[in-house]
Amino acid sequence: MSTKFISMRLRPSMCNMVKRHYPSKIGFYGIDLDYLFKDTPLDGIQREISRPWFSVHLSDLMRQALVYKFGGYYSDLDVITIRSLRGLENVYPFDNFYPIENVSSDCLLPKDAKLKNELNNGLFHFKAGSEFVWQTMAEIRRVYKDMVVHRNGVGPGLVGRVARSFLKTEHMSVIQTKELSLLPPFVFIQPAFRPYQYVFTSTERETSFWESLLRCSKAVHIFHSIVGDEEVTGNARREIFSYLGPRYCPASFVHLKQF
Q1: Between residues 3 and 229, which one has the greater pLDDT?
Q2: What distance in Å separates the CA atoms of residue 98 and residue 115, rounded to the nearest whole number?
Q3: Which residue spans within the chain are E strands per DSSP?
Q4: Antiparallel, parallel or unpaired: β 79-81 and 219-221
Q5: CA 34, CA 63: separation in Å to the nearest integer?
Q6: Which domains does the chain have, with CATH numbers?
Q7: Under a CB-based contact definition with an 8 Å cutoff, are residues 140 and 42 in contact?
Q8: CA distance 234 to 253
Q9: What is d(CA 183, CA 93) in angstroms, rounded to the nearest whole number?
Q10: Is the Cβ–Cβ distance between 189 and 213 less than 8 Å?
Q11: SS3 for 80?
Q12: pLDDT tens digit string along 78-96?
């Protein structure tokens, strides 16, 4: 996003798509990082990012500034939305995988459910000018020199720490407030935490299995970083991709073999 040029040599499918559809149906957009981070606690931080986690950290930083300045949803590219997100405001989900079989029929966690104090920053929503997002950026700015060598240094753990301070609690739980609500982990489910049980399985799954797994979910976070090297074959009995694709991303899924 920070380059002024795109190499058409990287992937033949990308090159062919551009030849067919640019500029009538495809546009390319960059981002001015100086403008994005100006007037936020992250002002100038883009010049401190170094390898090996440049793109990861830049994405983590950009999403906070974008949502603070403009409001709305941030979503990773490997998130598939399966139900309406209307009505969810100023929310983060827990960064956990909680067994759906332990969740009640009305999608409530048991009172003794144990959740780690981290939040999933792969999908969240805030209104523009959120104080919580500002505090998150301020904490990133404070610790970044020590976190620059860690892949998730400004990710789930840091956001969870800011949330505990913001909510004035030692251990977070599912909670709803005007400024920050924490959602159960299954609302934005992360099956890739158990990739060979749910994402690429050796077991033949019935449609009812996937329906049960996703019955309380609004989105599915696949985690390309965990399963990206696996091949999607189109077998909906063994791959959650192949179950979700024809239902929620049909236009993309029909071109599976091209990508």
Answers
A1: 229
A2: 8
A3: 72-75, 79-81, 91-93, 123-126, 181-183, 188-189, 219-221
A4: antiparallel
A5: 14
A6: 31-108+116-258 (3.90.550)
A7: yes
A8: 9
A9: 4
A10: yes
A11: strand
A12: 999 999 999 999 999 999 9
